[in-house]
Amino acid sequence: MSIYQHYRPEEHEFVDRTVRWKAEVIERYSPKLTDFLDPREQEIVRNIVGNDAGIRLSMWGGSSYSERKRALIYPDYYEAGSNDYQLVYYDITYPSKFSTIEHRDVLGALMNIGVKRSKYGDILVQDHQVQFVCAEEISGFIEMNLTKIGKTGVKLKHIEEHELAVIEADYDERSGTVSSLRLDVIIAEIYKLSRSKVSPLIVQGRVKLNHKITEQTSVEVREGDEFSLRGFGRSKLIAIEGTTKKEKWRVRYGLLK
């Protein structure tokens, strides 16, 4: 039985990487710390690593509410501590009376200075407070180069883990019926758009499935899948609740508030 049968084709590369991480820990008998993983990647790591005897897995991104986390895979003799995750926490200081900084602005600024998305975790924006988590190995580079977000001058202030803002994902749940579980059909239902409008948006790379851009309109979605449509927000397929007498699928989904 192939391990790949449980995963989509675009996930196979990450599956291979996870298998290599696991083999490294077993062969070297020493811990392996990953970059930041999105929720779907975390699930894959748990499935492949999580239940093996002699090897342990833990994940942390700064708080129990963190979405993006680093995974620590380690032999059972090893005592893992919070320092093993090698996280650095920042508060962004800026003239909030004259400027507004949003989540996408921080993403853009970090991308512009050449930081890979896998090297930093959650970006937390609450009113005028803006914070983010990054990998220790990249912190010096970020401190040296992240001096502006958009046209706004910023300063980075080190904070402790307990000072991170608590922002819990909150979904507005709704139910509906769909003719199929194709991505374009589900996106159209969730965001109340026509399929004729949704299909070009997918092809243009404006839709993410489980945090990855996909241009395949016909890919079949699964319970627990997460979506985002640029300009419309994020959502999740919470449950597939069977079919109706007219052979349509009953689904329950949530829009992130």
Structure description:
With 257 residues, this protein is an alpha+beta fold. 26% of the residues lie in helices and 33% in strands. It contains six helices and 15 strands. A six-stranded antiparallel β-sheet has the order 10-15-14-13-11-12. The model has no long low-confidence stretch (mean pLDDT 94).
- Compressed to H and E, one letter per element, the order equals HEHEEEHEEHEEEEHHEEEEE
In percent, how helical is the residue content? Answer: 25-40%
Cα Rg: 20 Å
β content, as a range?
25-35%
Structural class: alpha+beta
Distance between the termini: 41 Å
- Count every helix, treating DSSP H or I runs of 4 or more residues as helices: 6
Main sheet: strands, sense, barrel: 6 strands, antiparallel
Report the count of strand segments. Answer: 15
Q: Regions with pLDDT < 50 over 5+ consecutive residues?
A: none
Strand order of the largest sheet: 10-15-14-13-11-12
Instruction: Give the overall shape, derived from the CA principal axes.
Output: globular
* Mean pLDDT figure: 94
Key phrases:
257 residues, 6 helices, 15 strands, globular
Helix-strand layout with pairing:
Blueprint: H1 12-28, E1 32-37, H2 39-49, E2 55-60, E3 69-75, E4 87-93, H3 103-112, E5 120-126, E6 129-135, H4 136-145, E7 148-149, E8 152-153, E9 155-159, E10 171-178, H5 183-191, H6 195-203, E11 207-209, E12 212-213, E13 226-229, E14 233-243, E15 249-256
